[in-house]
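Students often ask what a 'structure token' actually looks like in practice. Rather than answer in the abstract, let us consider ATP-dependent DNA ligase, a protein of 295 residues. Its sequence is given first.
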Amino acid sequence: MTVTEVEGRRLTLTNLDKVIHPASGTTKGELVHHYAVNAGTVLPHLHDRPLSFLRYPDGPGGQRFFTKNVPPGTPGWVKTCEVPRHGDSPARQVMAQDLPSLVWAANLVVEFHTPQWRSTEPEWADRLVLDLDPGTPATVVECCRLARWLRDRLTEDGLACYAKTSGSKGLHLLCPLVPTPSAAVTAYARSLAELAAAEMPELAVAVMRRAARPGKVFVDYSQNAASKTTAAPYTLRARERAEVSTPVSWDEVAECRDPRELAFTLADIPARIADRGDLLGGLLNASRARPLPSG
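Now compare that with the structural description of the same chain:
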């Protein structure tokens, strides 16, 4: 156990020598360090968004549990927000508004997942997301091919599009929006997924049925629903290697010929941020937000 102070907040960090990601030998201490040193880049993507945690305290091979409620023992200085629950009373969830809150949450060993809306405007999405999920034997290489097609359609509709790896097998495409009801964003995203499946049937599929996915890329539009969440930028994932959901450039997407080219671990992130800045920075720029196309 290590007791430390972060920006005036007293934190107890536990089991820092414990190996969390066996294939890369990554310890819990290295995991916490990742969020602490990259907080200036990570926090803007979490700010004002209720967090859902996928916890894996014994590594990806151990118990995993998904939680949205405020965990027991949460310090009083960690900000929370009220979250609508349809057909039920509102719940409360944690937000990571500052470095101490981020380090406290990282000590729980979590993936960070966020909705497409902020606590200031619940269920009004300020971004659109498309989760490109490849079905074996398809890989992120096929995702990249489809991502370029989708980016062109989104651009035609006046939307700026950014890409990041999921930190698992696929890609996430994100577009900043003028706040829009989540149901309308979901409907638009679904229409785009169905268009991709119609025009590229050898590559894209828009139905969730797993039997339809082998060798194709599922365009998951459902994460735009108000109740759904997506792995946040720069979050570690519960995998054997310490893989991170990492922003990528469109040149990297265009040039990808091998899945290993877009597989980034915790060790890769500091140099990428130093060399390239935040490749998702435009997603945070209100001037880049556009309304959904009418009709």
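One point worth highlighting: Residues 182-199 form the longest helix (18 residues). Ask yourself how you might have guessed this from the sequence alone, and why that guess would often be unreliable.
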